[in-house]
Specification:
Elements (H helix, E strand, L loop, with lengths): L8 E7 L2 H7 L3 E4 L2 H7 L2 E2 L3 E4 L2 E5 L7 H5 L9 E4 L15 E4 L5 E6 L5 E9 L7 E4 L4 E4 L11 E12 L2 E6 L16 E8 L9
Antiparallel strand pairs: 1-12, 2-14, 3-6, 4-5, 5-8, 6-7, 7-14, 8-13, 9-12, 9-14, 10-11, 10-13
Length: 210
């Protein structure tokens, strides 16, 4: 694909706004995980999940948070589809559905973005990312940003992540991981987060005000 370190990217993280999200997601492909939930049901779905916007996989590891300890039969080694509120995680995008993708207390989620179309923007909603000092990495373009700033530490807090690339590309890799620092060896495994409304498409001009 067209991805590579030469493609600069910038990461923008704001409190979730339905109006801002709607203004961003006008031209591209979106997954709200409703079809996945209907097809596969609630619970662990394996190490990876493929849909219209690409492939989601766990970074690996086994968490030790409440999702692992308090949901019978949940191993905390795979990503999961959830329906409803689970330890502060819930659906974040008002699309009339309730399903979302849960990191399930693993080290995190990697989204290999590929829609079959060119794009220059990726956006999604995320809950609970601030609780463990997570780092978000967009490896296409080398962009990196800490989640968990500007008062988003509260349980169940929802943030809108928007990643802008400086040119049209065909694929990208977005890593949302448990990192206490930028070192991969500093991953923590004690909490989880959820993502919803995963979208890849063409950024509107001008961009909506944050």
């Amino acid at each position: 694909g067209a991805s590579g370190a030469a493609n600069a990217a910038s990461v923008h993280i704001t409190d979730f706004s339905a109006a801002e999200y709607a203004a961003l997601t006008l031209n591209g492909l979106l997954s709200d995980f409703e079809a996945d939930g209907s097809d596969m049901g609630e619970g662990e779905v394996g190490r990876g999940l493929s849909n219209d916007v690409g492939f989601f996989t766990t970074i690996g590891g086994q968490g030790t948070g409440g999702t692992v300890n308090n949901l019978p039969g949940n191993t905390g080694t795979q990503i999961a589809l959830r329906d409803g509120n689970v330890f502060g995680r819930s659906t974040q995008v008002p699309l009339g559905g309730s399903w979302y993708l849960d990191s399930n207390d693993t080290h995190g989620i990697v989204w290999s973005v590929n829609t079959g179309q060119m794009f220059n923007m990726v956006t999604f909603a995320i809950t609970d990312a601030a609780e463990f000092g997570s780092v978000l990495r967009a490896s296409t373009g080398g962009a990196e940003a800490f989640l968990g700033t500007e008062g988003r530490e509260r349980n169940g807090a929802v943030s809108l992540v928007t990643i802008l690339f400086d040119e049209m590309i065909s694929d990208a890799t977005i890593e949302i991981g448990h990192f206490a620092s930028t070192s991969a060896s500093a991953r923590r495994t004690n909490d989880g987060f959820s993502i919803d409304g995963a979208f890849a498409g063409v950024a509107p001009v001008p961009l909506p005000a944050s």
